[in-house]
Amino acid sequence: MWSTLRYLGGACGPARCRLAGDILRASGPTSRGPRLLCGGSRSSSTSSFDLVIVGGGIVGLASARTLILKHPGLSIGVVEKEKDLALHQTGRNSGVIHSGIYYKPESLKARLCVEGSALIYEYCNLKGIPYKQCGKLIVAVEQEEIPRLQALYERGLQNGVQGLRLIQQEDIKKKEPYCRGLMAIDCPYTGIVNYQQVALSFAQDFQEAGGSILKDFEVKDIEIVKESPSRSKDGMKYPVAVTNTKGEEIQCRYVVTCAGLYSDRISELSGCDPDPQIVPFRGDYLLLKPEKSYLVKGNIYPVPDSRVPFLGVHFTPRLDGSIWLGPNAVLAFKREGYRPFDFSARDTMETILKSGFIKLVFQNFSYGANEMYKACFLSETVKHLQKFIPEITVSDVLRGPAGVRAQALDRDGNLVDDFVFDGGSGEIGDHVLHVRNAPSPAATSSLAISRLIADEVQQRFKL
To answer: What are phi and psi for residue 446, nearest 5 degrees?
Structure first.
């Protein structure tokens, strides 16, 4: 059975993570940038570890870092299917350091986001990683949005988000001269950062603490080794075999998977429940032409509508000076399908037949149809953007990058918002922990999430 972290609050200690401690101080600031990491002297055909982490995205790398700092006596390895780290969700998001305003008060997502953003800022300061605390305005452009905006403001206060204030039209103009709006929430602690750079820095910390990273290692199977170690008199030290698609094998005592878009498939290797299923949603961004970048100073977001599952398109400055507009949210027909016509028959059939996607479509049909329409016609997205900055025209934008979000769905078509852990079944169940769902804003919350994962590992494996 899978369980959510909502029921594990007692395992996490105090309600708020400490912002200065082992998780940040164990490896001090360095002037060197993160280097490209490999498996060091270990060979994947002969390696053995106390703990193996599957997945080289920001959650997997943050967890590996936290675990090795907490348990320096353990041998820990990370395996990643790509030739480089943090290429997918980590490297293809908007780079926003979120404040935690959107989430239900006292929920894990709210707490982890508020804690995680403070930890990310502190970590970047320690490591010399560039970021910009450019702030965010959540803007009501219609009178009917104002009650929702005020309710969101109250929610942010309950969540402990710093510096929030409600501002009127004249103050909106002071912050964003080209933005129109009736009222807005000013979130001054929202920022931007390159999360791939952050993830590579986590990887460097991990390796410098003695960890190993094996890339180009796509996991095909996770199983108890054939010698049936648990039935031997003393047990075998490394009872779990992790095999890749090339037939190479590493052995370990325990496995933690943080597999993102493939978290459901990887977990099923150890006999886990097929639910929740991952459904991939592609988010397409537009780019504001450089000569028009003066129109946007910081992040500009719409007032969220609780009737639809995603936040809606917004304006996001980047560290390189570019302005991203978006994203939309449309079904991706391939789990790593970053182009509109990328297609995988297996991925598509699993989405249609195995998940609650069809129910989600019926529940949000008009929203989904509108998102598809906007994805096809630039002018429709621009019309939405013009509600906030009327000066933007179709000729001012270009099609930009895209990312794919791993959205966990239950059988009833509900988006799974909380963290889901699963341990497998049978003999292997005592040796495996699957992170089935690490929902947005996972990058912002990555250091806080890594503490929860480390606590769960400690509890389950008695390290």
So the answer is: -55, -45
- 405-410-413 Cα angle (round to 5): 85
Q: Is the pLDDT of residue 8 over 50?
A: no
Question: From its phi and psi, is residue 227 left (phi > 0), alpha (psi between -120 and 50) or beta?
Answer: alpha
Q: CB–CB of 258/53 below 8 Å? A: yes
Q: Enter the DSSP assignment of 415.
A: B
User: pLDDT tens-digit profile of 311-351?
Assistant: 888 999 999 999 999 998 999 999 999 999 999 999 999 99
State pTM to two decimals.
0.89
Peptide bond into 276 cis (omega under 30): yes
295 closest CA partner among 327, 318, 263, 317: 317
For position 447, what pLDDT does the model report? 98
Please give the structure tokens belonging to residue 304: 């969220």
Rounded to an integer, what distance in angstroms lies between the CA atom of residue 219 and that of residue 3? Answer: 24
Calpha distance 219→259 (Å, rounded): 10
Q: What is the DSSP string of 214-266?
A: E-S--EEEEEE-TT-GGGSSS--S--EEEEETTS-EEEEEEEEE--GGGHHHH
Residue with the larger pLDDT of the pair 392 and 228: 392
pLDDT tens-digit series, residues 72-89: 999 999 999 999 999 999
39 to 166, 212, 327: CA distances (angstroms): 50, 5, 35
H/E stretch holding 284 reads strand 277-288
How many Å apart are CA 225 and CA 241, to the nearest integer?
6
Q: How does strand 314-317 pair with strand 48-54?
A: unpaired
Count of alpha carbons within 13 angstroms of residue 240, beta-carbon side: 24
Residue 9 is predicted with a pLDDT of 30
Instruction: Output the CA–CA distances (angstroms, integers) from residue 145 to 139, 142, 184, 302, 390, in the order listed.
Output: 9, 5, 10, 9, 18
pLDDT tens by residue, 374-390: 888 889 999 999 999 99
Q: How many helices (H) and strands (E) does the chain have?
A: 12, 21
Report d(CA 67, CA 450) in Å as an integer.
8
249 phi and psi, to 5 degrees? -135, 140
The Cα 204–Cα 186 span in angstroms is 35
Give the tokens for residue 6: 């909502």
